[in-house]
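Support request from a user on the community tier.

User writes: "When I paste my structure tokens into the form, the page sometimes reloads and wipes my input. The last time it worked, I copied everything first. Here is what I submitted, just in case something in the input itself triggers the reload:"
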């Protein structure tokens, strides 16, 4: 998850090459193409120069592909990476991979296991993995979506932010999102009967509201950011809340055991959500197309 790849722009000779490369990346695969270098001329300028001999029609198609790739979050920018003009692309990129900044490279030559020749590049469809069930790891695999999304939904029927095993994970996720200095909106979805297993009281709702405000204030998020929580009743409905997801308009991640801190050393499965499932989940949790009854809506705002 969140694997970052560098691609030598000189290996892309055609619109077909560009399309093939871009198909490997984005939230639906859990891998991202890093726009490297960012120094002038940057990766995009180098690619455009490499495609300059194509017809006007092909160049226009390439530009549309690149524009859509930025919209779809197939490509990400990572500032501050060193670049030496006396070295070629691979000589510059390989130290970044060796330092763990990049997870793999697609270049003019192959040096297994992490440097791949474009013509022989093969990789699994998605980058799902098993991770230790702690806040640091949940934040690591969610980093790109948290960083680039303005609105994020966390769906977990049993998520109770007051409980320490959820609080510690939510703190990490919010702080990771705060690393990009823009205001953000988080929406938590949970089942009311699971959160309030011993019955609902005004005091429990007040405690939950205080906890949301506490999480928001500790997060480092920008003023104007907010956390909302929808406590729902889904029994007997079509849209029964079962899966645990981190969702945004850009993509989503499935968390097998939700957003709880697990016992030391216990692992859990995480995986990217495919486009079809993502579209369906957006309709439910972003567009309101569901039959769940919202028992209580709680909101905390950072002024």
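"...and here is what came back when it finally went through:"
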């Amino acid at each position: 998850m969140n694997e970052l790849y560098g691609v030598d722009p000189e290996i892309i000779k055609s619109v077909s090459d560009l399309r093939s490369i871009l198909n490997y990346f984005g939230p639906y695969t859990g891998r991202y193409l890093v726009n490297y270098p960012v120094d002038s001329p940057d990766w995009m300028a180098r690619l455009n120069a490499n495609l300059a001999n194509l017809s006007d029609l092909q160049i226009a198609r390439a530009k549309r592909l690149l524009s859509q790739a930025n919209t779809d979050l197939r490509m990400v920018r990572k500032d501050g990476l060193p670049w030496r003009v006396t070295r070629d692309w691979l000589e510059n990129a390989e130290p970044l991979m060796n330092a763990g900044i990049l997870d793999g490279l697609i270049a003019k030559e192959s040096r297994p296991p992490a440097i791949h020749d474009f013509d022989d590049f093969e990789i699994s469809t998605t980058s799902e993995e098993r991770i230790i069930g702690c806040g640091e790891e949940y934040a690591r695999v969610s980093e790109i979506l948290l960083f680039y999304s303005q609105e994020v939904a966390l769906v977990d029927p049993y998520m109770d932010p007051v409980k320490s095993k959820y609080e510690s994970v939510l703190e990490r996720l919010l702080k990771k999102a705060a690393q990009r200095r823009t205001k953000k909106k988080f929406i938590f979805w949970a089942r009311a009967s699971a959160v309030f297993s011993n019955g609902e009281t005004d005091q429990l709702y007040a405690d939950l509201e205080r906890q949301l405000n506490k999480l928001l204030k500790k997060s480092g998020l920008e003023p104007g950011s907010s956390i909302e929580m929808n406590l729902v009743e889904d029994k007997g409905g079509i849209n029964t809340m079962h899966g645990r997801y981190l969702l945004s308009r850009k993509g989503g991640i499935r968390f097998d055991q939700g957003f709880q801190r697990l016992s030391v050393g216990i692992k859990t499965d995480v995986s990217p959500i495919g486009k079809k499932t993502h579209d369906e989940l957006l309709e439910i949790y972003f567009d309101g197309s569901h039959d769940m009854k919202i028992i209580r809506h709680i909101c905390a705002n950072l002024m």
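Agent notes: The reload is a front-end session timeout and is unrelated to the input. The chain has a mean pLDDT of 95. The first helix runs from residue 15 to 22. Escalated to web team.
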